[in-house]
Amino acid sequence: MPGTSPRLPAPHARHYSTLFQDGPQAKVRDVTEFSPTVAFSAGQMISTVADVNTFLSKLLAGDLLPPAQQQQLLDTVHVDGDKGHGSPQDRYGLGIRHFKLKNNCWAWGHGGMIPGSATRTLASADGRHVMTMNRNSDWGEQRLEDTAVQTTFCKP
């Protein structure tokens, strides 16, 4: 965990941000060394895509929690999912979101963003199919990410 240190242990990607400026003239800055405390606990975990995939796979497969806690984890409530990635039909459990990707196509997961980095991880209900994406910038086409996710999880 980084605490208040702006340094990342090697190896790592570089991260770039426009620092909330919009438009074609927005200056792009290298924000790789940046204190993640701006995101409170959301910026306090450093991991690899492979580790995140393994964790989510084992979590959804039921390998990490006793059955009663697993049931509580997946007991969801409505969430306003159209803010950021997701849909208005999304549901939220205990730290995990049930994303409606298309009609009859759902995936479990979570996403997060700090300046210069956006991560999104999703898995099938049984944890056998997992996908994690990391974008090393804080701009981009959400539509393209959504298409990649739908192509991965939704049958044509």
Automatic annotation (TrEMBL):
Domain of life of the source: Bacteria
UniProt keywords, alphabetically: Hydrolase
Entries under InterPro entries matching the protein: Beta-lactam-related, Beta-lactam/transpept-like
Pfam family, one: Beta-lactamase
Keyword Hydrolase: yes
GO molecular function: hydrolase activity
Keyword Hydrolase in record: yes
Every Beta-lactamase-related domain range: 8-137
Protein name: Serine hydrolase
Organism: Streptomyces muensis
